[in-house]
Amino acid sequence: MAATKSQKYPILRFGTHVSGVDPINRQMRINNTSPYDIRVDWQAFNVDHEDRQLIDFIATMGEAFPLRDAQGMEIIPRDPGKVHLKRFPTEFLPNSPDSSPVNSRQVTETFPPQEESREAEETRRLIQVTLRQHEGRYGEAPFEIVPRQLVIPRHGSSVVTARFTPFSNADVLTNLECISYALGYMSLDAKSTSVEEKVSRVQGFDMVPLRLDMTAIVKPALLTIECTEDEGMRYRTAASDLLSNGKVGKDSLKICSTNISNQTETPLTFKLVATSPFLLVDVNPTSYRAQETNMCTLRPQHNLQVKVAFRVDLDLISYVDTLGSDEERDGISLEIVDGERKLHIHQDLTAQFNNGTHQHLPLYATLIVPSLQLSKESIDFGTCLVGQQREMELLLSNKTGSSSFWTTMIESKSATCMPETFRVAPSSGLLDAHITHVSNSKVLLKVNFVAKHTEAYEATFIFQGMLGEEPRRLYVKGQGSYDERHEALVNV
Question: Which helix (H) or strand (E) covers residue 367, if one does?
Answer without folding.
Answer: strand 358-369
